[in-house]
Design goal:
The complex is a heterotrimer of chains A (477), B (264) and C (256). With 477 residues, chain A is α/β, with parallel strands linked by helices. Chain A has helices spanning 2-27, 45-58, 72-80, 93-101, 111-115, 127-134, 200-211, 213-217, 223-228, 232-245, 257-262, 273-285, 315-325, 328-338, 347-353, 366-369, 402-406, 418-429, 435-476, and strands spanning 32-38, 63-69, 88-89, 105-106, 157-170, 194-197, 249-253, 268-272, 290-293, 299-309, 341-342, 373-377, 384-388, 408-409. Chain A folds into two domains: 33-160 and 306-338, D-Maltodextrin-Binding Protein, domain 2 (3-Layer(aba) Sandwich), CATH 3.40.190.10; 162-302 and 341-429, Periplasmic binding protein-like II (D-Maltodextrin-Binding Protein, domain 2), CATH 3.40.190. Chain A has 19 helices and 14 strands. In chain A, the strands form three sheets. In chain A, strands 4, 5, 6, 7, 8, 9, 10, 11 and 14 form a nine-stranded mixed β-sheet that branches. Chain B has two domains: 23-55 and 232-248, no CATH class; 58-229, MetI-like fold (Orthogonal Bundle), CATH 1.10.3720. Chain B contains eleven helices and no strands. In chain B, helix 3 packs parallel to helix 6 (131-156), helix 4 (94-108) packs across helix 6 and helix 7 (160-167) runs antiparallel to helix 8. Chain B is globular, with a radius of gyration of 22 Å. The chains are: A alpha/beta (477), B mainly alpha (264), C mainly alpha (256). The interface between B and C is large, with 82 and 85 residues.
């Protein structure tokens, strides 16, 4: 008796404790910061450091509850439909645009920094990122009027990491000239050797520039116009390019492209610079030579940024979190950890990332760090070298030369054209249904039906025979 | 001759079934990040795993998986046993039919449908998803199997046993504890074990009910990992250990029962 | 008083099923009602047939469904062809530990399905076999075979041996005994095997993603993509289509 009761009680206790614990947390919400970030997108030891730092600055305790997502739309659904109370999230630029349009974001309040004498590190973000952010398309939605010059997108979103889209390729099999153009997708030499990132927005925004390259060169149209013009004709143009590339494409990778490249199973991967930098390092360890190039026709410059949704419950800690991440040292640590490139453009970052030994080639990154020359003192020899942002020894995958940026566009939200884009994408990815399969299905269905009809008629005949026999017996009797 | 053929067929099929698992076993003894490359023998992965150095995320996932499986299996065993006794004692009628029919639904439904339907319910009610939601969902799809395992035991039971116990002065609870439960024990145990197996193996239901991502189980952790391409190498020793433990338990348990039956 | 009422209620053991009936209502029936509810709602929350309209107009979605049915048929047939002899041999051969043999078929379930699938991918890479449709079918059969072997094996074990003996005594040839007596008697196992394998194969999603490098899309992937993209109504409508298909197949099953 007792045992059963105990069993019951303990089970009930389990359930109630689970529900109670969620309640307890709700009460303590002012001391919780819910951070929602991409997976593998932060040096996790920073979380604890932030908690300590926040206590130092504001005198208040905070506990970070860190969770991750791997699909933008998934995250957005949770906030928009589920009204989940994340305090600070890190979506991609086109989702930021959509969240702005739908009135899902609130301004990042920096006034409290003054009260606590906390430096405002948000200013560390490279100015060109704010410029790019401001390009988010104007629209007539009254919730957020992007055309209104007094409203600045950077009041609502602070850049975090960014990069470009290009080709990652294996130098053992691929000549650099072959991948200098997006036409490499058509090169028959790469049959079944190309992986394409399963991201239709990025693929569209780079390939439309390839499709319209002549017009762009002759000045008849602009990159930005074509990239945000999702007309049927434009979508069709990209679809045609991809259909022609189909024999070369071995797969559409969500994230496993890096691995296939490192294993040498694929030669070319249309991917993001961050993934490329990671793969190049990883591959070098096993003696596989990978390189990254941004084809000449153009690319997109993508960014992820921190925003505070309107359903946030701890807005203050959220703004401190964003501020904390904008420090130069923190940015460098995150870059080391994730392999992506931070949008922080301070001299400290330039000094931290530059290395003549690792990167003999130089890049012009004035657009990123401003036109500066800073001294760098070698700790061992005491020699001073000068780092010039005009010709800095940086990793060109992460910090592209100015010419790459000049031929880049910012991706826009395609919300109202999403269905057309998705349809194009599934056309391209292919319909696996063919006549063989269709006839197979028909034959099997026919056989099953025949089987049933046969069975039913047999049963029916049996019944009839039985009935006849009985009838005869009755007559005889 | 026939027997040789039969044996050969079974063993070849087994070999095919177990080939991927053997691969995991073998490659749990090398440190390479990528499954399928051999970088020399090493037991470091086992050490990392057992010392808890495989990363907090993995440890959390293991903890959540165990917690969810135990709670869900315990609740569904109790719930399912009572339900089976109830159904067994019901008159044959609409209500009984309705309950047995509904009981079959989670078993026939594909995981993804179960997951999405519960997800939609929580969205509709405006309740945030999370551990509670996952456990509820797991109870929902585990209990039918418990009912299914307990029912045959009830059928076998002498229907007069319970009444006899009551006539002899036992309270209903005493009768339950002293008479019914012992009779149903084997069914309850196999139901419990099946529930744990299903809960641990589940992926689709958890994926849709876990919500924000704070509650990762091993399945969802591996899914997120697999999409990234870099599978945490410590998963290989983890599942090698699980596999071997279950295998040993299985053989041991069956040897024991085989001995008992031969002794009898 | 309450105690008295409680004991009265509990005394009728039929009432013991009520807690479970409540749970079933909340977590099985209500969610299914939700699928129906959401599938008839458009993005603005109005009642409409928009989602079904959209489905039947989109060739890609319809093709994905048909293709998934095809793959599910292939998988189911292969599972029967491979699983039936296995169940037969297991039921007929006397093993020292018969239960262990049977359990060996479900033991792989303890290794996480995705990890097993990734190992299969590695295996294909080892053998230099291309990933794609073939790998997908292999992975599906591999994953669902236990669900076919088990019901068939169980039916065979429970089979009334005297019927077969009777047929033998009446002078039927071994082949005749098998086709006329044994096979029909084991069919219920095959039917429940089909139910256990066919529908889950249509709606798998992660397996196809991993085994074909995203080249093949099954209906499950389609559902998951739409739910992930926040198109709850459309996702629910696709789920409802799966539910209707399940209804149809289990109708065939109950006909038996």
């Amino acid at each position: 008796m007792k045992k059963i009761l105990l069993f019951f009680i303990s089970a009930l206790f389990f359930l109630t404790s689970v529900s109670l614990s969620t309640k307890a947390i709700a009460q303590d919400r002012a001391h919780i910061l819910k951070v929602y970030n991409w997976a593998d997108y932060l040096d996790l030891s920073l979380i604890e450091e932030f908690e300590v730092w926040y206590k130092e600055q504001t005198g208040e305790d905070v506990k970070v509850r860190y969770s991750t997502f791997d699909i933008n739309e998934n995250m957005l659904t949770q906030i928009e439909v589920g009204h989940e109370d994340y305090d600070v999230v890190c979506p991609s630029e086109y989702i930021i645009e959509r969240m702005l349009k739908r009135g899902l974001l609130q301004k990042i309040d920096t006034t409290d920094f003054v009260r606590t004498h906390t430096p405002n590190w948000l200013r560390n973000v490279a100015p060109f990122v704010a410029e790019k952010f401001q390009q988010m398309a104007p629209n007539d939605d009254d919730k957020f009027d992007l055309a209104n010059p007094s409203l600045r997108v950077s009041d609502y979103a602070v850049g975090y990491m960014g990069g470009t889209t290009g080709f990652l390729y294996n130098t053992d099999f691929v000549e650099p000239e072959e991948v200098e153009t997006w036409a490499a997708l058509w090169n028959e030499k790469f049959q079944q050797k190309i992986y394409v990132k399963d991201a239709f927005r990025d693929v569209y925004s780079v390939l439309i520039q390839f499709a319209k390259y002549d017009d762009i060169l002759s000045g008849q149209t602009t990159r930005d116009f074509e990239a945000s013009n999702l007309s049927d004709a434009n979508i069709k143009a990209v679809e045609d390019i991809l259909i022609k590339a189909r024999p070369q494409i071995a797969g559409w990778e969500a994230d496993f492209g890096k691995e296939r490249m490192t294993q040498g199973k694929a030669w070319v991967n249309l991917t993001w610079s961050g993934d490329a930098a990671w793969a190049i390092d990883e591959a070098a360890e096993v003696g596989c030579n990978l390189e990254y190039v941004v084809p000449q026709e153009g690319t997109n410059c993508w960014f992820d940024g921190w925003v505070i949704p309107i359903y946030a419950k701890n807005v203050r800690a959220a703004s401190y979190w964003i501020n904390f991440l904008c420090q130069s040292e923190v940015a460098i640590r995150n870059m080391d950890e994730t392999g992506y490139v931070s949008v922080i453009g301070t001299p400290e970052v330039l000094e931290g990332m530059a290395s003549e030994e690792d990167y003999p080639e130089t890049v012009d990154v004035r657009y990123y760090f401003g036109d500066i020359v800073i001294p760098s003192v070698d700790e061992e020899t005491g020699d001073t070298t000068w780092i010039d942002s005009k010709a800095a020894h940086l990793n060109h995958v992460l910090y592209p030369n100015i010419d790459v940026i000049e031929r880049s566009i910012l991706m826009h939200d395609t919300a109202d054209r999403n269905e057309a884009m998705l349809e194009m994408w599934s056309h391209v990815k292919g319909n696996n249904l063919n006549w063989k399969m269709l006839s197979f299905i028909l034959i099997v269905t026919a056989l099953i039906l025949l089987f049933f009809i046969d069975k039913k008629t047999r049963q029916w005949r049996k019944q009839r025979r039985r009935a006849l026999r009985r009838l005869r017996e009755v007559k005889k009797g | 001759m026939k027997k040789v053929f039969a044996n050969a067929y079974i063993w070849i099929l087994m070999l095919l079934l177990y080939a991927p698992i053997l691969l995991i076993l073998v490659f749990s003894f090398t440190e390479a990040k990528v499954l399928g490359t051999w970088t020399g023998f090493s037991t470091n992965l086992y050490r990392n795993l057992l010392m808890g150095e495989a990363g907090e995320a993995l440890n959390n996932a293991i903890y959540n998986t165990v917690l969810i499986a135990l709670v869900a299996a315990a609740v569904s065993t109790i719930l399912g046993t009572f339900a089976a006794i109830g159904i067994h004692n019901m008159r044959h009628g609409r209500v009984r039919q309705a309950i047995t029919f509904t009981n079959n639904i989670p078993m026939i439904n594909p995981d993804i449908i179960t997951g999405i339907s519960i997800f939609l319910l929580f969205v509709f009610l405006g309740i945030g998803r999370g551990l509670f939601c996952v456990i509820c969902a797991h109870i929902a799809f585990c209990t039918p199997y418990v009912v299914l395992n307990v029912m045959p035991q009830l059928m076998k039971m002498n229907p007069n046993l319970y009444e006899a116990a009551l006539d002899l002065g036992a309270t209903p609870m005493q009768a339950l504890r002293k008479v019914i439960i012992p009779e149903l024990k084997s069914g309850m145990i196999s139901g419990f074990i099946l529930a744990i197996t299903l809960s641990v193996d589940d992926f689709a239901v958890t994926l849709f009910t876990k919500g924000s991502g704070t509650v990762e189980t091993l399945s969802t952790y591996i899914y997120a990992d697999a999409r990234k391409g870099g599978l945490t190498p410590e998963l290989r020793p983890l599942f090698s250990i699980i596999f071997l433990v279950i295998l040993v338990l299985l053989v041991f348990y069956n040897l024991k029962t085989a001995k008992q039956t031969s002794n009898n | 008083m309450i105690r008295y009422m409680m004991s009265k209620i509990l005394a009728n053991r039929a009432n013991w099923a009520w807690p479970y009936a409540i749970i079933l209502t909340i977590f099985v029936i209500m969610p299914l009602v939700m699928i129906v509810y959401y599938s008839f709602q458009d993005a603005e929350g109005q009642w409409s047939l928009h989602n079904f309209h959209k489905f039947f107009l989109s060739t890609d979605s319809v093709n994905t469904l048909i293709y998934s049915i095809g793959i599910a048929m292939i998988t189911t047939i292969l599972c029967i062809l491979l699983g039936y002899p296995a169940a037969y041999f297991m039921a007929k051969t006397e093993y020292r530990l018969p239960k262990v043999m049977a359990s060996l078929f479900i033991l792989p379930m303890w290794i996480n399905v995705l990890l097993r699938t990734l190992a299969t991918v590695a295996l294909f890479d080892f053998a230099h076999l291309p990933l794609g449709e073939g790998a997908l079918v292999f992975g599906m059969v591999y994953n669902f075979l236990p669900f076919m072997v088990y019901p068939i094996y169980n039916t065979m074990l429970k089979m009334d041996g005297s019927l077969i003996e009777a047929a033998q005594d009446l002078g039927a040839s071994p082949r005749k005994v098998f086709t006329e007596v044994f096979l029909p008697l084991s069919m219920p196992g095959v039917y429940s095997g089909i139910v256990m394998v066919f529908m889950p194969t249509i709606s798998t999603f992660a397996l196809a993603e991993l085994l074909t490098m995203n080249n093949v899309k099954l209906f499950g992937t389609l559902i998951q993509e739409n739910i992930n993209a926040g198109l709850l109504g459309y996702g629910a409508a696709l789920s409802l289509i799966v539910l209707i298909l399940i209804g149809l197949t289990s109708f065939f099953d109950s006909e038996e």
